[in-house]
Write a structure and sequence with these properties.
Length: about 220
């Protein structure tokens, strides 16, 4: 009985445990061991559900960031274009670089430039200046983008935590399989069976792969 690679998918681990569960249930001498395997399988399946949920959440957060960034880009481009016509000096101060082109940057860098350069400049404009009205809209869209970035980072952290839980569960599943095998070897010896009898309760290396491709069950050598 070989340890499953920690690089294997959670599905692979669960498939292996389900094989073992069915084999134990079919043998009267080992039927009492089924409950422990069932519990471990349930834990793994719960992790799969949580993983899908965290992946969906991160995807949604990324989508929100992209849309919020589009909104900020649009309103800032409008302000830049108007300033270029109405107040070139202001436009030069608002620019991210020496060029007059509107250049995109990282989300955080864009927010920082907006809050520390663009908004202070617009707020300082005299009432009636044609570009000043954009200050409110830029502030609103920038705030929304920063909130979206915060939500994305939180979702990233949850994904990282889910990955660590995967690794912990896999390691625990391997320890469980090792101790179960030892227990089955002891059971075999006490009943006058060959030690290899215990191997039949675990799938072969080929069978331990995902059940997406049906193969004939065979005991480990």
């Amino acid at each position: 009985m070989k340890r499953l690679s920690l690089g294997s998918s959670l599905d692979t681990f669960i498939d292996s445990l389900e094989y073992t569960q069915a084999a134990l249930a079919a043998e009267p001498l080992t039927a009492t061991l089924v409950a422990a395997v069932d519990e471990l399988i349930e834990e793994g399946e719960a992790l799969l559900v949580a993983d899908r949920r965290s992946r969906r959440a991160l995807t949604q957060k990324w989508a929100l960031v992209a849309v919020c960034d589009l909104h900020l880009d649009l309103v800032e481009k409008k302000a830049f274009k108007l300033a270029e016509v109405q107040d070139p000096a202001l436009r030069a101060k608002m620019s991210k670089s020496a060029t007059s082109a509107f250049l995109r940057s990282s989300y955080l860098k864009q927010c920082t430039h907006t809050t520390t350069i663009i908004l202070p400049l617009l707020r300082a404009l005299a009432d009636g200046h044609p570009v000043k009205p954009y200050a409110t809209e830029i502030e609103t869209t920038c705030t929304a983008l920063m909130a979206a970035l915060e939500g994305r980072d939180k979702a990233r952290g949850e994904r990282a935590l889910a990955a660590q839980r995967f690794e912990d569960w896999k390691e625990g599943a391997n320890r469980f399989r090792t101790t179960l095998h030892a227990q089955l070897v002891g059971l075999a010896m006490s009943n006058g069976f060959e030690k290899s009898w215990a191997d039949g309760f675990f799938p072969s290396e080929g069978r331990s792969k995902s059940a997406a491709e049906p193969t004939e069950p065979s005991p480990e050598a």
